[in-house]
Amino acid sequence: MTELRSTFSEEVPFPTGLMIWNYFDHEHVVGTHFAHYHRIRILAEGDNWCFSQRSATLPLIPIRMWATQFSCLISENHMRSFHFGPFGLLLEQDFHFENVGQQGCRVTVDSRMQVPRVLCWLQPFFYGVMRRWFYSVWDEDMEMRERRLKVWQLGFRDFVGLDYVNNKTAGPDRPDPERPYPIRLPVPKITEIAHGGIARPFRTSKTLGYGLPELPE
Amino acid sequence: MTGFVKIGYLRELEEAGQFSRWVGNHDILVFRQDGAIRAFSNICPHFGGPVGYHQMQDGTFTCLWHNLQFDTATGRCRNVPKFKLREYRLKIIAGDIYALLVEPPDDLPARRDRDLAVAEPQQSGEAKTAS
Asked: Which residues in chain B are contacts of A159 at CB distance < 8 A?
């Protein structure tokens, strides 16, 4: 056997707690990443692990593929995932979260797949698929993380929202950059999603993005 | 910010029938439906996702992050009925759209749980309010 391998690393201006929320919020894959993922179902979940089934279309491989995935947060800075795909293929991934300053984080993703030695020539293809996958999903997640941090610093409460919006009262003048972002697992689920799984609710969509630029003062 | 605050222009509704924008610390989703112009909070009560990322379809907004769906008539979530988007009161003056971000304290008890702000396009003055 031989091992196909890729490693990518990026630094972000978001706290580690937010990054782990992002990686452990498994249902968002058919939302935020609706262009790639078609369906996800949480099969079992514990405080620091999740076993799920999902279907997705990978870059450079234009067919829909099913896989089961087991993810485990080994420590506050290390998540390990196993993706069980077709033909007995197993993709192993390690995600390392390194704190950078007060509010930053460096994420390093190391991916490995054992294949028969005769397939060692697939290494450039494997690297290309993983690279394209990592960065396309990464870019979609970056907008999500940025917005999540903004509403969090405005006082957002999960499953409630922003109190000053709901109550129609005056809110904070500005976000609070000091609000801590703790690691809380498992990410809370909506009952329907947790038990039945979710799929994209539409075949096509016109997307309008995260919003128009703010008006000048 | 107190009083009505400018949040955009009627012309911004022409292409897709909706737009969203941060104004102060409010993310507001403005849309046209059945000739009326209305505005909801664009912040999903679940985790804060953008409700107006996708163009509305069949009277429904679908939040980008987790596909929670909201009825455009009521702002109520179809998946989790306890979730409801706040509706903003609007004024439209000379093609500019204004929203009341903070309700006057005297109005709050009466208005807190009501759906408000139905405005005809091109109409000047304060938006009609639903009763």
From this structure: 45-46, 83
